[in-house]
Write a structure and sequence with these properties.
The complex is a heterodimer of chains A (203) and B (237). With 203 residues, chain A is of the alpha/beta class. Chain A has a single domain (29-202), classed as Rossmann fold (3-Layer(aba) Sandwich). Helices cover 27% and strands 32% of the residues of chain A. Chain A has helices spanning 34-40, 63-72, 85-97, 133-140, 156-159, 165-177; strands at 3-6, 9-11, 16-19, 25-27, 53-57, 77-82, 101-105, 121-126, 144-155, 180-187, 195-202. In chain A, the strands form two sheets. Chain A has a seven-stranded mixed beta sheet, sandwiched between helices. Chain A has a four-stranded antiparallel beta sheet with strand order 1-2-3-4, with helices on one face. The longest helix of chain A has 13 residues, at 85-97. The mean pLDDT of chain A is 97. Chain B has two domains: 1-126, Helix Hairpins (Orthogonal Bundle); 128-237, Serum Albumin, Chain A, Domain 1 (Orthogonal Bundle). Chain B has 13 helices and no strands. Chain B has helices spanning 3-20, 24-54, 58-63, 67-76, 92-126, 128-131, 136-146, 149-154, 157-162, 166-175, 189-193, 199-220, 222-235. The longest helix of chain B has 35 residues, at 92-126. Classes of the chains: A alpha/beta (203), B mainly alpha (237). Chain A binds chain B through residues 53, 77, 85, 88-89, 91-92, 95-96, 99-105, 117, 119, 161-162, and chain B through 1, 3-4, 6-7, 9-11, 13-15, 17-18, 21-22, 170, 173-174. The complex binds S-adenosylmethionine. S-adenosylmethionine binds at residues 33-34, 57-58, 60, 63-64, 81-84, 87, 107-109, 127-130 of chain A.
């Protein structure tokens, strides 16, 4: 039996779904989406609900974005930032199909290049495999208000392939604690190796 | 501004940016990666052709080591079996099927030659000064590794020197193996010719020449100039 486990998120014994605008369940695959992986790994709260405005960094072709678009619904909105023109094409097609996605081709390292296009963000999500992923996240925190929630996926190997992931996660935690309160930390194994999701609340 | 308007505006703007991201270097890279794929695919197809042909005429396949000669022979003439052949008895239509397959491989090879010429011409028109240092394939490979001409132009020589050495570099960092001294540049004739002691140094000199060539080209080249002009125009109200 399918039940609503968080606002806009549904699950039966094994699988997780969102509902599209026609009311049909869409399977949310934990292998292709790290947010689904986190839900499978017992994320305690999503802090996300209908009508929310989301800033999503590293949107890629929009797999996860499409589910977030389902959750926030027609009155919600997703700003989807992606740096690569090649994958951004797919994102544009997605935005044309759905009424609540704005595709932005930009470098998340330079928030000033898209700041004028973004407003009223309630919830921030970042999944960017770059060496300076924490720095990018901290820069973009400016778009959310105090006490808002911000989700950060850390891929240890992108930060430093030679260090122990555990050490890297410790360093990241320390950096994040200066500007946020860490609400939960989820290792995404076995769905993703050496990836951790930090759920933060902005100070 | 309303979200609906924001969405419409970003869709238009992003489409425009994606459109503009397609440059001569993107086309060169696409052609070069397609060539790499075609080489692998053709080798697999020829292997298949040989296996098929060997059912009928294993002796001919065994004698004809050169792939091109082999494919051409199968495509153009119906090879005849030797008297004492190990090959099976095949009907006319079986042999025709093999022949047609060989013709397809010939066509793919011809397309490959065309793409190569196309890429070479484009490289000549766009990265002439890099081509003076490297030949076509190596220039293309370097472009692929860098991702774009812009990236290559932004790279310090030390990074260019190690392009294509990622694996060795990782091994060095992780396991303390020797520092790699060159990546793809190892295949440059000058590096190949250099004595073991001088290989690293030669790669370094080459890399610094390439770095300068890429910068000169990228920052003075005509299409970037057009792009810059456009950007300036957009910025001035
Ligand atoms: C791991 S993928 C994200 C997958 C996506 N979150 C999903 O679940 O569907 C990371 C994406 O971040 C993009 N990216 C990398 N650096 C970036 C930057 N500086 N700014 C914006 N996007 C970036 C990459 O092009 C890539 O598409």
């Amino acid at each position: 039996m399918i039940q609503e486990i968080f606002p806009g998120i549904f699950a039966d014994n094994k699988k997780i779904y969102t509902k599209d605008s026609s009311g049909a369940y869409r399977l949310w695959n934990p292998i292709t989406s790290k947010l689904s992986a986190a839900l499978h790994k017992r994320l305690k709260q999503t802090f996300l609900k209908a009508n929310d405005v989301v800033l999503y960094l590293g949107a890629s072709t929009g797999t996860t974005v499409s589910h977030i678009s389902d959750i926030v619904g027609e009155q919600g909105f997703v700003f989807a930032v992606e740096i690569s023109p090649t994958v951004c094409r797919e994102l544009v097609f997605l935005a044309e199909e759905r009424q609540n996605i704005a595709p932005i081709l930009a470098d998340a390292n330079q928030p000033q290049t898209y700041a004028d296009k973004i407003k009223d963000v309630d919830w921030l999500y970042q999944d960017i495999a770059q060496k300076n992923q924490v720095e990018i996240f901290l820069k973009n925190l400016r778009f959310v208000k105090k006490n808002s929630h911000a989700f950060l996926i850390i891929k240890a190997r992108s930060i430093d392939a030679t260090k122990e992931p555990k050490q890297i996660f410790n360093d990241v935690r320390e950096q994040l604690q200066q500007d946020t309160e860490i609400v939960q930390e989820i290792n995404l194994e076995p769905y993703k190796k050496d990836h951790v999701m930090f759920v933060c609340k902005k100070n | 501004m309303q979200f609906r308007q924001l969405r419409e505006q970003t869709i238009i703007e992003t489409k425009q940016k994606i459109k503009q991201s397609v440059g001569e270097d993107t086309l060169i890279i696409q052609a070069a990666t397609t060539l790499e794929t075609l080489t692998t695919v053709t080798n697999t197809l020829i292997e298949k052709l040989r296996m098929w042909c060997e059912l009928y005429n294993p002796e001919f396949s065994h004698e004809t080591k050169d792939n091109k000669t082999f494919v051409d022979a199968i495509a153009n003439t119906k090879t005849t079996q030797k008297k004492e052949t190990m090959g099976g008895k095949l009907e006319e239509k079986d042999i025709t099927a093999i022949q047609n397959f060989a013709k397809t491989i010939q066509q793919i090879s011809a397309t490959q030659q065309e793409i190569l010429k196309y890429a070479e011409t484009k490289l000549k028109n766009n990265c002439k000064n890099i081509l003076e240092i490297l030949e076509t394939t190596l220039t293309a490979k370097l472009l692929i590794l860098a991702g774009s001409l812009k990236n290559l132009a932004m790279m310090p020589a030390s990074t260019i020197q190690l392009l294509g050495a990622q694996k060795a570099l990782f091994k060095h960092l992780k396991e303390g193996a020797k520092t790699p001294k060159y990546g793809i540049l190892a295949t440059h004739p000058l590096v190949e010719k250099a004595s073991a002691k001088n290989k690293g140094k030669t790669a370094r000199i080459l890399a610094s020449k390439i770095a300068i060539a890429a910068k000169v080209y990228y920052f003075k080249g005509s299409f970037i100039f057009d792009q810059l002009k456009k950007e300036i125009k957009q910025k001035i109200p």
